[in-house]
Amino acid sequence: MKIYKFGGxxxxxxxxxxxxxxxxxxxxxxxxxxxxxxxGKTTNALETVVHNFFDGKQELALQLFEGIKESHLxxxxxxxxxxxxxxxxxxxxxxxxIEWLLHDKPVRNYDYYYDQIVCCGELFSSSLLYHYLREExxxxxxVDVRDIIRTDNNFRDAGVDWIVTDNNIGxxxxxxxxxxxxxxxxxxxxxxxxxxxxxxxxxxxxxSAAIFANSLVADLVTIWKxxxxxxxxxxKVFPDxxxxxxxxxxxxxxxxxxxxxxxxxxxxxxxxxxxIPLLVKSxxxxxxxxxxxSSKASRDLPPIIVIKPDQVLIQFKSKxxxxxxxxxxxxLQLIFDNVKLKPNLSQxxxxxLLCSFDNREEKIDQLAVQxxxxxxxxxxxxxxxxxxxxxxxxxxxxxxxxxxxxxxxQTQVTIQLLMRDF
Length: 422
Ligand code: ASP
Ligand code: MG
Prior knowledge:
Blueprint: E1 2-6, H1 14-25, E2 32-36, H2 42-54, H3 58-79, H4 84-102, H5 110-118, H6 120-135, E3 140-142, H7 162-173, H8 176-179, E4 182-186, E5 189-191, E6 197-199, H9 205-216, E7 220-225, E8 246-248, H10 249-257, H11 268-273, E9 278-282, E10 291-294, E11 304-318, H12 326-339, E12 345-348, E13 352-358, H13 361-371, E14 375-389, H14 393-400, E15 403-410, E16 414-421
The site of magnesium ion (MG) has 5 residues, from loops.
């Protein structure tokens, strides 16, 4: 059993949907679970619907949703004939679910509505692909993942109930493979035991694929993306970035931790725990080897560069020249938890603590106000945090040229530089 996960870019237009179907056809008779994201930028568009709905702009929300509906119905028209009516019916059932909600006034919190509305992107895209595969005479079925992946009600970042989910997979999903070769389902979404829809966090479809892989003890997970492979740096910033043919789970976890947007950070653990390899491949060039991520130690890695732009450095200085020791640091930690901010880098001196954060203005302001009761607080904005794994001198020189390094942390493998432009 294998798992294929297709991201939004792989199904963003008609040609790409057809291309995805071609990749699926190549599996000829193998048992594949297919996990789908929403088409193209649908999730962003749905976020705008939620935003307006919650802002009391109901008309606008409905109008924006109308646009999303139409584009999906259009795709259905172009992709299906024999399956046409069935596709439309399935889509329209989902439309009704959402519109019913949009016609009401919000009485619960934002995150709840976010999940009830945004989850439909994956339901739409998976229905379209499913019916198109049937149109193409493939032996496929479709599953509403909300009947399988059970979560808590921490909307927008729901935690998976592994026991119930495992059970559902064994009881309701596995048997489908007796009859079908291809089972199509949605990434990113799940549901609570009260049948409320939930989402697993943006870009969470990779994680969904890993949940299924873990439970089914799959042979392999392939994530189909619009890049040739995982690269040593963002090629938009570093045109000489190279492809990385093989990476260990550890390397990928570290890269994700430092901010590399390779795969969703929660994806690796479920795979590592069952020793299931993950392949990142290009849907544009399926013949390219891509990147294999497995338990094998990565060797001969080039410097891998991860940049987190728009950082704020905050200096928390002891007010009365007393040492920054356990108690005040503990208090500060509580404030971090309270405003839900985590430093990306931190360093102690005798009487101060330096921390770098993503510049999320509202939270940074809250943090500064609360911390100023215990510390003198100084802020510096417009910094970039550059992390280099497997660094060498040449790379460091190149990265720091014409830059002022304000904070530096270094181990044998990793160097982190917080820098200001001159
Ligand atoms: N569609 C969701 C998003 O754009 C989930 C995903 O693509 O993984 O975040
Ligand atoms: Mg995506």
